[in-house]
Write a structure and sequence with these properties.
alpha/beta, 171 residues
């Protein structure tokens, strides 16, 4: 029974995000040695395409979107990027997580001339655009947590990384 002092139970459950199922071990790459954004986008898109998570148009679409709407971000803990593109190019939802051996420059979100030396990339495949804001918000919260950042930078095993991320994102 709702006495007016708390949100109805259905509302409370609706506002909780659970994106754990979007993280998979196959889409975790640790200490990747990519030299450019293009190399990163082509390699990760090929993995996604092989597993039928994206359409053949995905790689070109995500690169074009990144050029128009950069996704690099920086805070006191880390510099990272969250590239994504239209749901049309995505077959199944995912978060493709890449920790780089050497940083790759991405432009800072909202600019075209401020580079961010990206260490971690969370490339998103959003099938349901209504969920994008919640996922981006959850990712931003995590990257603003020093413990989260230190943990993802120190994990050396893909299985351990996916378990950690699933717990952080609702699993």
């Amino acid at each position: 029974m709702n006495n007016g002092n708390s949100a109805p139970q259905f509302f409370v459950e609706d506002i909780r995000h659970n994106f754990a199922e979007m993280f998979q071990e196959a889409f975790i790459v640790l200490d990747a040695d990519y030299k450019t954004q293009t190399e990163f986008f082509c390699a990760s898109s090929a993995i996604l395409k092989q597993r039928e998570y994206v359409k053949p148009s995905f790689c070109k679409a995500v690169m074009e979107r990144e050029a128009l709407y950069p996704t690099g971000l920086a805070n006191e803990y880390i510099q990272f990027a969250i590239p994504h593109t239209d749901a049309f190019h995505v077959e199944k939802p995912f978060v493709f997580v890449t920790r780089l051996k050497n940083n790759i420059p991405f432009m800072h979100m909202g600019t075209t001339d401020v580079p961010v030396q990206t260490k971690v990339i969370f490339m998103l495949g959003i099938k349901n655009p209504e969920k994008q804001v919640g996922l981006l918000s959850d990712i931003m919260k995590c990257f603003n947590d020093g413990v989260f950042v230190r943990t993802i930078l120190s994990i050396q095993d893909r299985h351990e990384m996916v378990d950690y991320l699933k717990k952080q994102f609702g699993g």
